[in-house]
Amino acid sequence: MSAAVAPTIDVVQARREARAAWRARIPVGRLLTIAYFVAVFTILLAPLVVVIGGSFSAPPNDTVVMSYVQFPPKRLTLQWYERIPATELRALGVSFALALAVATAAAVLGVPAAFGLVRGRFPGKAAVGILMRAPLQVPHVVTGMAFLQLYYAAGDLWGGYLQGTPAGLFLAHLFMATPFVVGSVGAVLYGFNPRLEEAACILGASRWRTFWRVTLPVIMPGVFTGLLYAFIVSFVDVPVAIFLASPQAMTFPVELFHAMEQDFTPSSLASASLAAAFAIMLVYAAQRFLGLDALLRSRTK
Amino acid sequence: MLRARWETLLVGPFLISAGLLFGSQFIFLRQSLHRDLRFGQQDPAWSIANFVQILSDPYYLHALWLTTYISLSVALICVVVGFPIAKVLARQRSRWTSFLLSTIVLTSFITTVIQIFGLIIIFRADGPVNELLRAAGITRQPLEVIGTPLGVVLGLVYASFGFAVMLMYGVVLTIPRSLDEAAAVHGASRARVLLRVVLPLCAPGLIVAFLTIFNSCMGSFTSAALLGGGRVLTLPVLIQRTMLLDVKYGVAGALAGLLLLFVVLLNVASVIVLRRFRATRGVAL
Q1: For residue A62, is it within any domain?
Q2: Please, are residues B202 and B175 in contact by the beta-carbon 8 Å criterion?
Q3: Residue A66 belongs to some domain of the structure
Q4: Are both A146 and A235 inside the same structural domain?
Q5: What is the pLDDT of residues A204-254, one digit of tens each?
Q6: Which of A54, A130, B3, B275 has the most neighbouring CB atoms within 10 Å?
Q7: B55 vs A60, A155, B49, B67, B220, CA distance in Å?
Q8: At residue A157, does pLDDT exceed 80?
């Protein structure tokens, strides 16, 4: 249509196009989304930034030993890093080893359990499923207290006390973490297409080969998700470990908790920053080698 | 499906899980039925005195109410603030997506004690927030967050937010994108797609996320102990003090038993409501 024939329509059209172009140039919805993300992530990361910044902040003058943190730091120092108590570093090691052991054991228990729950046929399956998920409902502080009383009672009976030992912490954390693996592996198994296994069998693969080469690779994201959640549950736990830890078996969060309640010094900020750096490396490794989007895709129920 | 006796795989894990569950829950519930004597000793006679004492004491009932109130607020804040984040991350892929997801996961890798360090520095009387408020002339008195329920809620939100977003991200991913597109093709605006398609389909998953956060808040005491300044006494704080400081196993056991019962009842009730909701809406999940 030419402008000479129908000028009015063309003007309307041009105006509409101009408006659309303007709207496209200033995408209001997108700007709002970006603003929302910036606001939420800034607020979310603020405490961490303050802790890391504060760990480098020098006290206002040298004569006063201040357990006082300046943020933003006026002068930078590494002195708090030099004064990190050895107990805190050891606790960080204990926490990492514990979380690793708990995640591994939770997978060893949880993966077969998920297969049994999804594929098994037996009476009372629903009840068994509820029981395997029950620890998710138990408030953490109740778990901590319950295990402490269990260890007291068991110790009175058999003479071996588990409270304050790594084994005691391990059992209680395993109790909390296993349902996460059962849930995430179970969720993947429910969505598993059995034709994949049938195809492998028809093509002549043995049952073991089918399991190792077909079934396991498909459910692997679920296993890693479960491992991730199990690791986190153990690694950041305070309410259970506060009951079960002792100077001989001290986890990092509880060590920091006591440091905060009793004698707070900026060196606690320094070791907290180290832990944060450690967490950043772990998440980076998980992202790099496993892909977090794939991990979070299979959700726990 | 491979033919095998899959249920045999369940025997070992089931025995261990059941042993841990019943062993731990049985002992403290049994202890709660004995009266406390001094120094951690207990009266061998059975009695429900501990439960009577707790249920007739407004101090404990207030603690239960406060814990519930705080946990509900935290779960609500996490779901409402976190859902847009989860939805955008799950639906609009960009080069920032994996970075932002890693950041979310990172915050749940960092123990809440570290976050609380930061919050105390930020919100103390001469911290950055109060300096800012004073400079802007909004407040004359410093805003008090530490030592108030607000501070405890804040600490718990920081502790739960990452996990909430991770859960809801998984929920949004289960809704096929083709449904949005179908609605859009038929002329629904973006807001309408969100309100009439995405949200209703996500609702059951959001309720699950809400409950998960609520449960974990009902049992966590780090935030109340460190940010409450001894003034915000939630049930978990009372349980920890009764057990470790007062060495009263019976009362601590009874408190824990009531907390457990309360949480389990709330969860069962919400599962029933959720079932009905799914049945009436016909939402397939």
Answers
A1: no
A2: yes
A3: no
A4: yes
A5: 888 788 888 888 888 888 888 888 889 999 999 999 999 999 888 899 999
A6: A54
A7: 52, 32, 10, 16, 22
A8: yes
**B129 to chain A: which residues are within 8 Å by CB?**
none
Assess contact for A177 and A230: CB atoms under 8 A.
Answer: yes
- pLDDT over 90, % of chain A: 28
Q: At the topology level of CATH, where does B58-233 sit?
A: MetI-like fold (1.10.3720)
The tally of domains found in chain A comes to: 2
Task: Assess if residue A61 is contained within a domain.
Answer: no
Chain A residue numbers with beta carbons less than 8 Å from the beta carbon of B225 are 257, 261
For residue B15, count other CB atoms closer than 10 A to its CB.
Answer: 10
Most B CBs within 10 A among A131, A142, A258, hence the mutation to make, goes to: A142
In chain B, which residues have their Cβ closer than 8 Å to the Cβ of A280? 106
A10 to chain B nearest CA, in Å? 26
Residues A109 and A218 in one domain: yes
Most confident range (mean pLDDT) of B23-32, B198-207, B255-264 is B255-264
Q: Kind of pairing, strands B42-46 and B34-36?
A: antiparallel
- A284 within a domain of the structure (yes/no): yes
Dihedrals phi, psi of A36, to nearest 5 degrees: -60, -45
Which of A16, A40, A55 lies at the terminal end of a domain, its last residue? Answer: A55
pTM, 2 dp: 0.85
CA-CA distance, A279 to A96, in Å (whole number)?
10
Decide if A194 and B1 are in contact by the 8 Å CB cutoff. yes
Same domain? A45 vs A88:
no
Full domain range(s) for residue A29: 7-55
A vs B, Cβ pairs < 8 A, gives 291
In this predicted model, what pLDDT tens digit does every residue of B209-249 receive, in sequence order? 999 899 989 998 889 988 887 788 899 999 988 888 888 88
The verdict on A110 and A49 lying in the same domain is no
